[in-house]
């Protein structure tokens, strides 16, 4: 089953500018991990923002799990798209514990379901026992795993990752690459992974889309 359908998607930040995304069409199968590779400024982040619903396209359409989330006449807001996002700077809430961060998007669940989901996510990213810590008490790699757990906790149908390793040092990057691939496989997650580093993409992704500026 196709889980993402992007049809002739176009976007520009202003009418004077040339389009950042120009009639881009692309499909993803369930469980695929696809890399988006391209130089700085080529529109990678913009593409993820369009899929997430943080920007509205100037043309074209996006469907997720067979449901149109945006086209010329409709727009489903980000919180109803079933999309999880992990950003470059993790963006954890500094005043919340690991548990608080992971449970953040789970207010629709009962208390019991929430506790079970938290335990499942902590186990998935191998941070069981860390739930009472605050982000500043964790290493960069651990913070990144919390961000991943938070994004996966509401069980999104796709996960969008925008240069998630750019704040990690080189050694950590190598180990977290294979960790990430294992976690995504275990969760059977469909993922769009943006990077400017082809080694990240080679290590993690099933196939690659090149963006050109
Ligand atoms: P990438 O993630 O591949 O580095 P971006 O999607 O961030 O690229 O940016 C694509 C292009 O859009 C760049 O030329 C950038 O300068 C421009 N751009 C990005 N964000 C904005 C914005 N908020 N307003 C105007 N132009 C923007
Ligand atoms: Mg970017």
TrEMBL record:
CDD domains: ABC_Carb_Solutes_like. It catalyses: a quaternary ammonium(out) + ATP + H2O = a quaternary ammonium(in) + ADP + phosphate + H(+). One of its GO terms (cellular component) is membrane. GO terms for molecular function: ABC-type ferric iron transporter activity; ABC-type quaternary ammonium compound transporting activity; ATP binding; ATP hydrolysis activity. The keyword Transit peptide does not apply. InterPro entries: AAA+_ATPase, ABC_SmlMolc_Importer, ABC_transporter-like_ATP-bd, ABC_transporter-like_CS, ABC_transpr_FbpC, P-loop_NTPase. It comes from the Bacteria. Its EC number is 7.6.2.9. Residues 1-212 form the ABC transporter domain. The keyword Cell membrane applies. PANTHER family: PUTRESCINE TRANSPORT ATP-BINDING PROTEIN POTG (PTHR42781:SF5), SPERMIDINE/PUTRESCINE IMPORT ATP-BINDING PROTEIN POTA (PTHR42781). This is Carnitine transport ATP-binding protein OpuCA.
């Amino acid at each position: 089953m196709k889980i993402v359908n992007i049809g002739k998607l176009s976007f520009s930040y202003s009418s004077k500018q040339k389009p950042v995304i120009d009639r881009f069409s692309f499909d993803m199968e369930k469980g695929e991990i696809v890399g988006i590779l391209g130089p700085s400024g080529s529109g990678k982040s913009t593409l993820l923002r369009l899929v997430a619903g943080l920007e509205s396209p100037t043309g074209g359409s996006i469907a997720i799990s067979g449901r149109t989330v945006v086209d010329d006449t409709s727009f489903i807001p980000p919180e109803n798209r079933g999309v999880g996002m992990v950003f470059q700077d993790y963006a954890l809430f500094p005043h919340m514990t690991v548990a608080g961060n992971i449970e953040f998007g789970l207010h629709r669940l009962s208390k019991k379901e929430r506790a079970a989901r938290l335990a499942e996510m902590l186990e998935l990213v191998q941070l069981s026992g860390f739930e009472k810590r605050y982000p500043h008490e964790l290493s960069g790699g651990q913070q990144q795993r919390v961000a991943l757990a938070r994004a996966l906790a509401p069980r999104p149908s796709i996960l969008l990752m925008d240069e998630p390793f750019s704040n990690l040092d080189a050694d950590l990057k190598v180990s977290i690459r294979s960790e990430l691939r294992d976690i995504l496989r275990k969760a059977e997650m469909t993922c769009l992974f943006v990077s400017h580093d082809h080694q990240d993409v080679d290590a993690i992704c099933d196939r690659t889309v090149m963006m050109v500026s």
